[in-house]
Amino acid sequence: MDAATVLEQYTQDLSNLPSELAHLLEELRDKDMTLYQIRKRTQGKDNQLHKYIKQHGSLVKHPKEQQLYSKINEDFTKAKALQEEKILLSNTALLLISKHLVRLESDIEKLESEGLLAPDDMIEEDKNMSDGMSSLTPVPPSQSSTPGVVPKKRQRNGVSRTQSRFESPPLSSSAPTRTHRKKNASELNQTGEEDELYCFCQQVSFGDMIACDNPDCKYEWFHYDCVGLTAQPPSGIWYCPDCKNDQSVRKRDRKKKKVET
């Protein structure tokens, strides 16, 4: 396996992704339009009631008040169901993208470990050196002492991450193995609320679940199916798709591996 083969195969696998995402987005748009009509209809009934109260006073009951309230409640029920369907469609789109990212990241790591692809940190160091050598215009010492890519690093590393809903130990050389971070739904329910939501899909715990080893992970616990895992948990450190794509997490993991070796 080489980089060209991986790129070609990955491009083929992605060929259907745009149409799949377009279909999901179209469904989301249709549901948004339906929600807009429901909101408009509900607002009209509410205005009708307020207008009657303004004309006759709050003590005089609208002749169709009960009927109007009943229809408003029906519209609220429909709106809630549509919102839940929108959440499901959004999570489906996220899952489609995440599965491709997980596979790509895995292939990149294999190529890097076999020496067929330069690691990201080496590429960035080469870029920094190239940027420094290509600068012909002298600048004041206070500016030249600051590499040109520092603002990008600060911007990337400065993105705020939602604190994990569970406390987890920081990554270290004595971090628990993957088997210690695997749990099933019953074990999670014993340590937290039964209605606690997990994973990208934001559903309750069920079946086998796996924890991301990034202590700042937004979700931390994931269902196997949602991250493309089989019954056999991966060995060693494992990151969810979001954390794998976080450059700061990847660099920290590489530095840790270098220290261990």
From TrEMBL:
Q: What note about domains is in the entry?
A: The PHD-type zinc finger mediates the binding to H3K4me3.
Site annotation Histone H3K4me3 binding: residues: 198, 209, 213, 221
Q: Which branch of life, at top level? A: Eukaryota
Provide the Gene Ontology terms for cellular component: cytosol; NuA4 histone acetyltransferase complex; nucleosome; nucleus; piccolo histone acetyltransferase complex
* Coiled coil start-end: none
Annotated spans, Disordered: 125-188
Q: Where is the composition biased (Polar residues)?
A: 131-147, 157-177
Example GO biological process: meiotic cell cycle
As for subcellular location, the record says:
Nucleus
- Residues that coordinate or bind Zn(2+) 1: 199, 201, 223, 226
Organism from which the protein derives: Komagataella phaffii (strain GS115 / ATCC 20864)
Q: What does this protein do?
A: Component of the NuA4 histone acetyltransferase complex which is involved in transcriptional activation of selected genes principally by acetylation of nucleosomal histone H4 and H2A. The NuA4 complex is also involved in DNA repair. Involved in cell cycle progression and meiosis.
Respond yes or no to whether keyword Zinc-finger is given for this record. yes
- A GO molecular function held by the record: histone acetyltransferase activity
InterPro entries per UniProt: ING_fam (IPR028651), ING_N_histone-binding (IPR024610), Zinc_finger_PHD-type_CS (IPR019786), Znf_FYVE_PHD (IPR011011), Znf_PHD (IPR001965), Znf_PHD-finger (IPR019787), Znf_RING/FYVE/PHD (IPR013083)
- This protein is called Chromatin modification-related protein
